[in-house]
Amino acid sequence: MPSGELRLLAQMVKMTNSNSAKYDHDYGFDTGLAGKVVIVTGGTKGIGAACVKKFAGQGAIPYFLARGTQAGEALEKQLHERGYSSIRG
User: Fold this and answer.
1) What is the rounded distance in angstroms from the CA atom of residue 56 to the CA atom of residue 84?
2) Strands 61-65 and 37-41: what pairing?
3) CATH hierarchy code of domain 35-89
């Protein structure tokens, strides 16, 4: 992974607060992923869920995968209520 991607991931993790209603657009940095599909494994808990929210907030379409269907459905509902697109696998 190029160092720029590592810095972006570190920034995302640092700014993550799983109880916060804020998504990426509230923090003012741009991933450059608007309109692109991003794949996140383990996307319903912890850092994975935070990444899904951050990418969605930047206009990307997160395709997220996880074992738990209830958590996935809840996250997908939360994203769609905020007007974001997502795909749950």
Assistant:
1) 6
2) parallel
3) 3.40.50.720
Establish how many alpha carbons lie within 13 A of residue 40's alpha carbon, considering only the half-sphere containing its beta carbon: 29
> Measured in Å, how far apart are the chain's first and last C-alpha atoms?
24
pTM: predicted TM-score of the whole model, two decimal places: 0.68
pLDDT averages per 10-residue partition of the chain, 89 residues: 58 52 53 88 90 90 88 92 90
Please name the residue that has the structure tokens 């907030």.
57
- Nearest Cα to Cα of residue 69 among 46, 44, 87: 44
Three-class HEC string of the chain: CCHHHHHHHHHHHHCCCCCCCCCHHHCCCCCCCCCCEEEEECCCCHHHHHHHHHHHHCCCEEEEECCCHHHHHHHHHHHHHCCCCCEEC
